[in-house]
Design a protein that fits this description.
The N and C termini lie far apart (about 70 Å). The protein has about 190 residues and is α+β, with helices and mostly antiparallel strands. Strands 1-2-3-4-5 form a five-stranded antiparallel beta sheet, with helices on both faces. The chain has one domain: 3-Layer(aba) Sandwich (Aminopeptidase). It is built from five helices and five strands.
């Protein structure tokens, strides 16, 4: 990936380098409480996985944030974590990292992305998106970015249901009939 600087400042979004690891670990432990923050082994696992891609936000030589995204079977992917140094939170750095992931999703195709809901354990969340009740805020933001409604439906669940059906068969996504069918209903 070619490094990209934003016009607002010296922020650069670039691919992870091995020399970044200690700083990423430090950021993760500053951003998340003990027990939620990744251990060295866990963070190394996600970064080193052949299925993962790690992007780093750097400002004037200082690594201030990162995102790890993972591709899954059947060309689906998800974001493992977005971490921003606490002293730089609320500066839209996470949004800029998401811009890059959104670009990757456009390249891969909207049929291959899904929105996760693991909001537990974080100290800081974007305003209005502290849990799944914030999905309307995410939806509104993506609509403002020009996402078509059909693509939003895919992102918000249709892709996940399709992958589940492919993996487990049609019963995974269809309603089962009540325990008593119409002719078996007790009188």
């Amino acid at each position: 990936m070619t490094a990209r600087r934003t016009p607002q400042n010296k922020l650069e979004i670039r691919d992870y380098r091995k020399s970044d690891f200690a700083r990423l670990y430090e950021i993760d432990h500053a951003a998340f409480p003990k027990g939620i923050a990744y251990s060295h082994l866990e963070l190394q696992h996600y970064i080193r996985s052949r299925k993962s891609r790690t992007l780093v936000a750097e400002d004037d030589g200082d690594v201030i944030g990162f995102v790890i995204a993972c591709s899954e079977p059947r060309q689906l992917g998800h974001i493992i974590t977005i971490d921003v140094a606490p002293h730089r939170q609320r500066e839209q750095i996470g949004s800029r990292l998401l811009d890059q992931i959104e670009h990757i999703a456009r390249v891969a195709g909207v049929d291959h992305v899904g929105l996760g809901s693991d909001f537990d354990g974080t100290l800081f969340m974007p305003e209005g998106v502290s849990d799944v009740a914030g999905y309307p805020t995410i939806t509104a933001g993506l609509l403002a970015r020009g996402w078509p409604e059909a693509d939003l439906r895919k992102l918000l669940g249709e892709n996940t249901l399709r992958v589940l059906a492919d993996a487990t068969g049609p019963l995974a996504t269809t309603r089962r009939s009540p325990p008593h069918g119409p002719s078996e209903t007790p009188q």
